[in-house]
Amino acid sequence: MGLLEIARLIIEKDNIAVVTHVAPDGDAVGCTLAMVEGLRSLGKNAVVISRDRAPDNLTFLKLYDEYTGTSPKIPKEAGLLIALDCGNLDRLSLDLDSVGTVPVINIDHHMSNDMYGIENHVDTKASATAEIVYRLLGLMGVTITKSIAESLYAGIVADCGSFSFESTTGETHIIAKELMETGIDFPMIHRILFKTRDFARLKLMGKALQSLEERMDGFVTFMYLNAEDFNSLSISDRDSGDIVNYGLESKTCDVSVLLKEAEGFFRVSIRTKSLLDARAICEAFGGGGHVRAAGGNIKAADVEDAKRQILMIVERMLPDGRCD
Amino acid sequence: MGLLEIARLIIEKDNIAVVTHVAPDGDAVGCTLAMVEGLRSLGKNAVVISRDRAPDNLTFLKLYDEYTGTSPKIPKEAGLLIALDCGNLDRLSLDLDSVGTVPVINIDHHMSNDMYGIENHVDTKASATAEIVYRLLGLMGVTITKSIAESLYAGIVADCGSFSFESTTGETHIIAKELMETGIDFPMIHRILFKTRDFARLKLMGKALQSLEERMDGFVTFMYLNAEDFNSLSISDRDSGDIVNYGLESKTCDVSVLLKEAEGFFRVSIRTKSLLDARAICEAFGGGGHVRAAGGNIKAADVEDAKRQILMIVERMLPDGRCD
Q1: For testing the chain B interface, which of A58, A165, A177, A221 should be mutated: the one with the most B CBs within 10 Å?
Q2: How many CB atoms lie within 10 A of CB B9?
Q3: What is the pLDDT of residue B28?
Q4: What pLDDT is stored for residue A321 in this prediction?
Q5: Which of these, A105, A152, A111, lies nearest to A3 by C-alpha position?
Q6: Is B169 in Cβ contact with A180 (below 8 Å)?
Q7: Chain B residues in contact with A180 (beta carbon < 8 A)
Q8: Which site among B175, B177, B245 would you substitute to test the A interface, given the most A Cβ atoms closer than 10 Å to its Cβ?
Q9: Contact status, residue A63 vs residue A47, Cβ threshold 8 Å
Q10: Is A196 in Cβ contact with B210 (below 8 Å)?
């Protein structure tokens, strides 16, 4: 359905719930909060539905406190559920039982969208769902205030990697310009999204980079973090964030591998630059993921054994049988 | 002088030399090569003047090989010198003697420009000189080819930090959109400019981050690299690049300090986030620089003594006498 028809449908309703996907990221939270704020500016009763917490670096968004992760049920009075940035019903951050007969409008930019709404608007050319929401709010007659613009700008730059990903279009830049004109502190948003870490995570990055080694003439890099690295920094979730990306910064590297010690196995994160398929590498030991980012668990006697196994997989995939 | 008049002046000439500042960065090289390529497309004889090498990560630019650092003299037949992105005559990357009576057109975006040209166009609102050159080439009737667009796009994103710096404007985004429409591989440009390092420099970053420590409740962070850190990685120039910026990523940090062991003293690099003036801190021990980025050499018995001295300066600068 076209965006103008979607706008008309929404405007007819007074009580509207808005939801996004589980494990919400910058785009998910940004476009959800912008939509709720926009609906309220039109005098509507709008609520955020969520059963997951928003990332805590987004506290600067005006309605952040309403994204609590503790409101998974759609209120009885709701006449419409707007689902944003989510490819299928099962991944919505809510209690599915509470949807009942409430009509769902599905607005998304992901290729793999199940078209689960009573009406669907899936624009795969948009770099972020926040781009679509920006256009939609305009069609609904919402004035884009500074706080709405902050939510949308955060969503867009989070999803397009500060205009560096292939998904960025001319339209992305036009919208960025229009959002900037509301007076948002966009350098602050970039700093918070891309240049802010916990002290402990910076130290963890140091430990990982210290372990960095090249194999196959630098085509593959390995980093390794053991249990003690996490324990000594009191990082309990074993989350290594974007550290694996740094291996890829090495000029010659096409395959960056981060290994994390676990109980009887190793967790593997792989990123590839342009030649090899990260998912195919990981599927070879039972993992999965995407072409450029994948992972899984590997059984190995020790970390050197894990590296050997991965190198063998990589060598098999190279057409010219390149080796160390 | 307005840009249209500048365009008219340039179009009258047939032999044109183009130069930028010493220690050229992405914007300097990008706008210089774009200008030369644009002039040639109009049938003019245009040459790059340089006595410094261009950064070697810019080899992807079509005319990179003409930026040799070995052509510091303006040819006798030149009827015009276009000086780009350079605030004063002394910083031009050429033999000043060779300028003689050749008229100089000075095109720049720096606040501190001496207006040294016979004609000057200094637009401090432009995020990069490449922005101005883009507009100028358009006024001269140059078709923006893909290779010209690559040079200009590289210049712009290098100078505006991928659209994150305060200097970014709506105009920056509009130009980015127009350049993208020529079909440039902009994700590659971002990757080369912001996500590519030598393997040894990644290891050096690991060493620095390993040494990271917080003081004054995390308000100040210190990193330290000794001579052995550089020697073991065969990094002879003692260049630590952007490593000092990583200290600033810590949430609580306002002052990031990187200390490098030298012969009888320590080299200091300081970055500040928002509260303190990095230059003022460095001036207190004889250094200098800018508000957010400064440096200098400090005499100290050992690295702990250097840290103590810097902490004392920082504490003096805090209005509330905050301390460790």
Answers
A1: A177
A2: 16
A3: 98
A4: 53
A5: A105
A6: yes
A7: 168-170, 173
A8: B177
A9: no
A10: no
**pLDDT tens sequence across B52-101:** 999 999 999 999 999 999 999 999 999 999 999 999 999 999 999 999 99
A176·B181 Cβ contact <8 A: no
Q: In this predicted structure, what is the pLDDT of residue A241?
A: 85
Strands (E), chain A: 15-19, 45-48, 80-84, 104-108, 119-122, 213-215, 220-225, 255-261, 266-272, 288-289, 293-298
CB contact under 8 A, A177 and B174: yes
Place of tokens 């599905």: A106
Contacts of B60 in chain A (CB under 8 A): none
Question: In this predicted structure, what is the pLDDT of residue B240?
Answer: 87
Q: What is the mean pLDDT of chain B?
A: 95
Contact across the interface for B202 and A212, Cβ inside 8 Å: yes
> What is this model's ipTM?
0.91
pLDDT at A83: 98
Name which of B196, B206, B249 is nearest A195 (Cβ-Cβ): B249
In 3D space, the residue among B209, B239, B153, B82 whose CA is nearest the CA of residue A198 turns out to be: B209
Identify the H or E element spanning B224: strand B220-225
Q: How many CB atoms lie within 10 A of CB B104?
A: 19
Token couple for B27 = 């914007």
Query: For residue B308, what pLDDT band results from cuts at 50, 70 and 90?
Result: very high
Sites in chain A below the pLDDT cut of 70? 320-324
Q: What residue ranges define each of the domains in chain A, with the CATH number in brackets?
A: 3-194 (3.90.1640.10), 199-317 (3.10.310.30)
Strand B15-19 to B45-48 pairing: parallel
Chain A residues with beta carbon closer than 8 angstroms to that of B168: 180, 186
